[in-house]
Amino acid sequence: MNKQRWRIVQEMLMIALGCAIYGFSLDAVSIPNQLADGGLSGITLIIRYWWHIDPGLSTLVLNIPLIILGWRYMGKRLLVYTIWGTGCLSFFLWFWRHLPIIIQLNFEHDLFISAMLAGALSGIGLGIVFRFYGTTGGTDIIARILQIKYGISSGKSLLALDAIVLFLSLSYLDVRHMMYTLCASFVLSRTMDTVQQGAYVARGLLIISDKYEQIARMIDLDLERGYTFLEAEGGYKLTKKKVIYCIVSPRELHMVKNLILREDPNAFVSVLNVHEAIGEGFTYKQKRQRLFIRK
Q: Cα–Cα distance between 182 and 166 in angstroms, integer?
């Protein structure tokens, strides 16, 4: 098996794993504790309450016309992964419902724990699915079509669709359960972002100083971090300047700011959040941690 095929197999396995975790969250936590959900999953919960139809079956049936609609606008790979994700989610929604373990996770006595657990598990599951280029169908397809055809951002579309579904969920939920559902949605979004982007956060620095050479040398000698010179031009005097760009770990941020202050108190520094850093010093040949910088 060549590398391309092996990568596709890995991605499809991870999408299946994400769907398994997300389906478990719905079956084992959200449904027993009467928590709603957004998107198509929320619609299946409404259907389950009023017509007692298994969410696994309704998820599959409702996704069929959406997948057909998305055929015109989505690339072949994304469409295949969407069909795979939809099938996996439908299977695991059916699978978890037939295991006795779900009766052990009824936290009706503590809806806060239920909401936190539902949000965390759903966020982990969906984060894995999206990280490996898959979707679970439903409103994800609608949001993608609206983005391609009308230029509406996916975030705004998903937010509007989720709001509509959560409003409809009030037909069988009281306000108390709905508020806990909103808490779960917040935890879901934060957890999903963390899984997609990685929990590690580095710091990127843009340093503008007339003493850029001294500062760069100290970054190299004291912190053992690499740096890059960027060509820039001042907006007021139009003078040419060198800008230092470097990435450090969060624990090194205070050290590098002290270093810059020591070399040039008038330096301009912009600190950026870097969600992932790949390369020497971060993903390989990682430097040994020290409590203090060298003098």
A: 9
What ranges in the chain are assigned the alpha helix state H? Answer: 3-25, 39-51, 55-70, 76-97, 111-131, 139-150, 154-169, 175-197, 212-218, 253-263
Is residue 173 within 8 A of residue 34, CB to CB? The reply is yes
Does the structure show a pLDDT above 50 at 295?
A: no
Q: CATH number of the domain at 202-274, please?
A: 3.30.70.120
188 in Cβ contact with 117 (< 8 Å): no
Q: Which ranges in the chain are annotated with CATH 3.30.70.120?
A: 202-274
The interaxial angle of helices 3-25 and 76-97, nearest 10 deg, is 40
pLDDT in tens, 3-60: 888 888 999 999 999 999 999 998 888 888 888 877 888 888 889 888 888 887 888 8
Cα–Cα dist 235/268, whole Å: 14
Tell me how many helices (H) and strands (E) the chain has.
10, 4
CA distance 46 to 37: 9
- CA–CA separation, 35 and 121 (whole Å): 14
Q: How far apart are CA 171 and CA 242, in angstroms?
A: 61
Contact assessment for residue 161 and residue 140, using Cβ atoms and an 8 Å cutoff: no
Contact by Cβ (8 Å): 11, 133: yes
What is the Cα–Cα distance from 63 to 7, expressed in whole angstroms? Answer: 26
In the structure encoding, which two tokens stand for residue 290, read together? 């020290």
Q: Is 24 exposed, middle or buried (0-12, 13-18, 19+ CB in 10 A)?
A: buried
**Separation between Cα atoms, residue 261 and residue 123, nearest integer Å:** 41
Greater model confidence, 206 or 139: 206
Q: What is the DSSP letter of 147?
A: H
d(Cα 48, Cα 34) in Å, to the nearest integer? 11
Mean pLDDT computed over every residue of the chain: 82
